[in-house]
Amino acid sequence: MTIQRICTKMPRTNAQSDFAYWQTQPYHLRLAALEQIRQEYHQWRYSVQPRLQRVYTIVKR
Length: 61
Known about the structure:
Order of helices and strands: HH
Helix content: 40-55%
Largest sheet: none
C-alpha cells in the first residue's frame, strides 16, 4: 500500500492543522503513514532495514 500525494491550494487562513487532517483519515491509512515514516527513519539513521534482534539464552545443564 502506498500513500497518495494530495495537494490542494488554499489561503493560509483556511488551512487545517496536520492533526485535524490525520483525524479525518481512517486508522489503516494513519498506520500505513506511520509505518512508512518509521521505515524511512531507519533507512536514513542506520542505513539498514530493521530486523528483530537475536536473543541467546545460555542454559547450564
